[in-house]
Amino acid sequence: METDTAFLERMETIDYSVLLGRYPISLFHRKTDTSKGRDAFALPKQGKTDFVRGVISADGRWVYKFCVLDFFWNVKQLHPKIIKAAGTALPEQTITAEPERYREEFLKYAALRLCGKLYGC
Amino acid sequence: MCLLPAPQLGCAGLTKAIYIDYAHFQRAAPLLFYHLRKDVFNLDEGHYQSQFTKKLRPVDGLGFSGSLFFYSDDESFIVKSIGRRFEYAFLYSTLMHPLGTHYRENPGTLLSEITDVLYTFDYRLGGYLGVSPSHYIVMTNVLEGLDKGEGCKKWDLKPQGFFEPTRDLVPDGMKTEAAKSGLADELDEKLTLTRKQKADLMHALLVFVYSHHLVLGTNCLIGASWRRTPPS
Fold first, then answer.
1. Which domain holds residue A53?
2. Do A58 and A78 belong to one domain?
3. ipTM surpassing 0.95, yes or no?
4. pLDDT of res. A84
5. Strand partners of residue A74
6. Beta carbon pairs, A and B, within 8 Å
C-alpha cells in the first residue's frame, strides 16, 4: 500500500479510499472455474497474500478483499476553482490540498482501522 | 443504456466502437489497456469483449459523488462515469500512462484495476444538460458477488474531516442522506486478519508513515529498558 500511496502522492492526488469487502468463506470453492473469465469465488490459497483477490481471515470464517479507489482528484486541477471556493465558503472545514498530508492521514487511518492499532501489527 | 458491438477499427481488433445512450464511444489508449488486461491483470480477452455486447445494467448505491455506475453482463466489470472536468483532464493529461507503468511494476498493487477508458465527442442533449457524462472508465468488479449471500458486507474507508465537495459544497436539499452524513463508512467491526496478513498489509505503510516515530520510539524504549535492567 505504501508504494501505491507514494505513487498517488507523486501524481498529486487526494481523496482516494479503501474499499473493503467481507464474504462468508462458504461462498468459495477450491476448484477454480475460469470458463467465464476470472473466478471471483476461487478459494484464496492459505498463506498466499493477495488482498485484491482475497485473503482468508484468521478465524477461517471470512474472505476479505481490498482495493484503493477514486484516485482522480488531482490538486493542480482542483486548485483553481473548488479548493479556493471551499476555503472561502467553509473556513471551519479541514481542507487539504496537500497530497503528502492526505497520504499520511490515509495511511494512519488505514493502520488504525484495518490493523486495530498502530504498533505491533 | 446499451453497449452494442460495432465494426472493429483495426489495432488487431482492439478498438471497438461502442454505443452508450446511442452515443459513439471510443477507447482511449487501446493498446495500453489491452496489454494491461492481457499481461498484468491476466484477464481473458474473449470474456472481456463479450461483456460489452449486451445491455449494461445501472448499479444503485455505489458511491456518492454523482458518478453513474453500470454492471457488465455478468457483473465482473463496472463502468463508471468520470463526469467532472478536473477528473478526466487529469486522467488523460497526467495519470493514464504512469498508471499503466505502476500496474506493471507493482504486481501486488491495491489500486483498482482500470481496464479501459472510454470517451465520446458526440453531441447529445444529455451532454448539453450536464446529465450524460462523456467520459467513462471500466474497472474489474473487485467485490463481485458481494450480494450473493448473507454475511457479505462492504465498507468504503477513508479519513474523515477532509474537504469533500459533494458533502460540503452542494446544498443539503440536493444531496442524498449518505452524502449528508459524510462519504466514508465507519468500520464497525474488528477485522480478523492473521499477524502475517496484518504485517503484509501494514508493513509498507507503517515504515513510511511512522519511520521517524518508530526509530525515535524504539530508541527511547531501548534506552529506558537498558537503564532499568542493565546487562550483566
1. 17-69
2. no
3. no
4. 57
5. A13
6. 236
Instruction: Please write the tens of the pLDDT for every residue from B36-68.
Output: 999 999 999 999 999 988 888 888 766 556 678
* Distance to chain B for A14, nearest Cα, Å: 10
A6 and A43 share one domain: no
Task: Please determine, for residue B152, whether its predicted confidence score (pLDDT) is greater than 70.
Answer: yes
Residues A80 and A64 in one domain: no
Helix spans in chain A (H): 2-10, 75-78, 84-89, 99-110
Residue B191, pLDDT score? 83
Enter the pTM of the model: 0.74
Residue of B78, B139, B189, B192 to mutate when probing chain A, most A C-beta within 10 A:
B192
Same domain, A51 and A31: yes
Q: Are B64 and B179 in contact (CB under 8 A)?
A: yes
The cell for B185 is 463508512
Among B28, B165, B17, CA closest to B91: B28
Looking at CA atoms only, how far is residue B167 from chain A in angstroms? Answer: 11
Q: Does one domain contain both A78 and A115?
A: yes
Average pLDDT, chain B: 69
Residue A118 and residue A94 in one domain: yes
